[in-house]
Amino acid sequence: MDFAPNQSRPSILLCFFHILVSSRGENTNEKSYNFGTFLLPNLRYIISSSPCITHFLHHKLDFYSHNLDKSSPHLLNPFTVNQIPPKLSWPNEYRSLLMLTRTHSRIRSYTRHSKRFCHFMIFYSNPAPSADTLGFLLRLFVLQFFDNGFKLGPRYGGNNFFHGDNFYALHIARREQNVGDKIYTHCCLRGDHRSAILPNFGQLFLAGDSVTMCLHSPRMSSPNRQNFKCFQDFRDENLFPLFSVIQAQTAFRYDVYLPAVKVRQLRNGVDSLNELENAARYIVLHILAGRANANVSTSCLQDLEGCSFPMITTHESTSLWAAYVYKSTPVAVGAKNLHFLTCYSRSEVTFSTYTTPFDVYIWGAIAASIICVAVTAHGLVSLIHVIRRDDKVGINMKTLPDVTFRIMGILLDQIDGLAVKSGNYTELRVLLAVWVMVATVMTSSYKGLVILGLNAPPPSQYLDKFEEISCKTGKSSIAFNDSNYLYPGRIFYPMNFYMTIGILQSPYFSKLRASLISKSSCFSILSTPLQRPLADYLNTQSYSFYDSLYSNRFIDMTGLKIDPLLAQLIDPGQRPFPASLKPYLANKIGTSNISRDAIYSGIEEELLSCGKSVFIGSKEDVTAYQIHLKKTYPLAKPFHISKNFIPLGLTGWRFETLHSLKIVKVFKNLIESGIYDKLLEFERLRGSGVIEIRRNVLNVTKVKKKKSKIIELEGSIQTLFYIWGYAIVISVMVGTFELMHYQIYMRCGYKLIF
């Protein structure tokens, strides 16, 4: 009796295990069956675990046979149904379908609330669409929920408009229908170059009893087969939570743009360089990579195989963000303005030099005292009846102008005194004595202050406005006959002139460009040369000033929409290259091999000459260059940064990832805490800046020291001699006139009394 229970226990455990395995197997088969097949998928079961608004996009699917109703207990969220074409071409069919969906009232209602809710898109098409068609459909129906109401130009005000983490897309397909490497195209063709990558994208393969779920992982990587992570015969009845296994993006690419960095150093890494000399490089490679546990590659110089990582772009203008609105997160860091740097100044001695010793109140008091003394003296003189200019010759001088003339003569130190027989009028004597004393003191003080002001160096009048350096010639007299010849004629904007520089190769065009630049007396507009292959560095399009205006949409390719001031600044007469490159103008276009070292040296040489030349760049660039010139050439004339500027709008960093990723949040914390501004300030104080000025050819300081020192007459002392020469010429002219006048009177029989 005791053994029987012991024998029954194993049988009970085996039965329980058999029942458990049987039920598990039945559930497994049921779940595989519940997903359905490709020809008849179980949509109710697929979307039952989704907490989002569901959108069915199908072709050749009997959707209404699934008995899906909004009142169904299995569907807790609203859904929409749209039919899609089996093939979608670019751009006509795409744009027509886009306008159709945008005008739909239901789509507009969902779009208005796209930021608040998540959306689950289910695509089904039989036969399966091509990679291009699937890419266009994904962009059309998924990306229309993105906030793409961005603004272009300097008044850009939007941020965080990439909300891809709120959208999920699922494509139901067969395994044999997707044999290509590319799942969908992420970049539209020809007319529209804006890329679009879906961070939450999966494919559900239904083939018989097998179920395979492939997810795009890691996020923001290229939509290739190698970047998909697949789960086969999974045992979880909830399909939607599988999207949570998508890995976050941890690998990025950052292009180190440094002219001084060699290719060998790039391959070995930039650890040997002083990272703090460049704030952006230090933030990316040390702060962001460390705090966000990200791998940042600096050795991938091109987007080749093995280097297709998301980019981190620094110091980018907002106008470029529109091209990457569907796959990047921009972060604005500040506004960028263009200033110019120059040591050119105007030092002129004007008539105000002789009025500045006394202010307006003193000059008014002097005029009032002259009138007061003249009126008083005239009143007293009227009692005497006669005033003689000289004791020997008597002339009646009873009028007020005569007395005023005498008083002015005393003030100007041209008459010793007023010879008058005033009898016992002590009041007049006291008045004249006090006046002569005051006049002597004021005259001596005035002459001393004027001479001191003329001998002292006058204040330099630096240029502060772009209107002062612009070429006032207006539009360029350039017109086009055909693609091979040019002739002066009709008036076009200078943009048309520069469009042809990289295209036409005619010798006449070279002569025309050389004549326009050599005959011009305008300022030379210098800026950093762009690093481009086969760049024509005699053309303004190869320099950063033009590139900043064009990239911020201030000028267009036709030149028909342009501010008049900017049209003058890019006039052909405004030389964009240093004067040391003028000999290259005689060469045929495209045959001159000009190095960037020669351009930097020429820019520095021309700026130190303090002629009609300016260096244009951002406030950070010109400040760093000013510090560099001050340290390198301490004896050179001080450089001045213009107060006036051209606003280019906001600038910022761009991360090809979601705004919710940790690397983006760490960068925002750097900005909010002020660390970003401190690093930029340290970069400027070191004087390195972002323009990397190199000097390996010219040393202007040593050249100036070798010259013999000659004392030259210039400035205020030279002005005194000019005034003296003008006075001698005027005296000779007056003397000649008096002599001629005397001879005429003598011939007429008049007798002059002197």
Overview of the structural elements:
The chain is of the alpha/beta class and 754 residues long. Among the domains are: 220 residues, Rossmann fold, CATH 3.40.50; 105 residues, no CATH class; 44 residues, no CATH class. Helices cover 36% and strands 13% of the residues. It contains 20 helices and 19 strands. A seven-stranded mixed beta sheet has the order 2-1-3-4-5-6-7, with no helix packed on it. The longest helix is centred in the first third of the chain and has 32 residues. The N and C termini lie far apart (169 Å). The N terminus is likely disordered.
Task: List the defining traits of the structure above.
19 strands, 754 residues, 13% strand, six-stranded mixed sheet, single chain, seven-stranded mixed sheet, alpha/beta, 20 helices
Could you give a quick summary of the protein structure above?
With 754 residues, the chain is of the alpha/beta class. 36% of the residues lie in helices and 13% in strands. Among the domains are: 28-247, Rossmann fold (3-Layer(aba) Sandwich); 351-455, no CATH class; 711-754, no CATH class.
Q: What are the low-pLDDT stretches, counting only 5+ consecutive residues below 50?
A: 1-33, 147-161, 257-273, 385-397, 474-505, 556-561, 687-717
Shape: elongated
Strand elements, count: 19
Distance between the termini: 169 Å
**Which strand order do you get reading across the main beta sheet?**
2-1-3-4-5-6-7
Classified by CATH, the class of the domain at 28-247 is Alpha Beta
CA radius of gyration: 43 Å
Number of helices: 20
- Overall mean pLDDT: 68
Largest sheet: 7 strands, mixed
Question: Which fold name fills CATH's third level, the topology of the domain at 28-247?
Answer: Rossmann fold
CATH architecture of the domain at 28-247: 3-Layer(aba) Sandwich
| Structural class assignment | alpha/beta
- Percent strand equals 5-15%
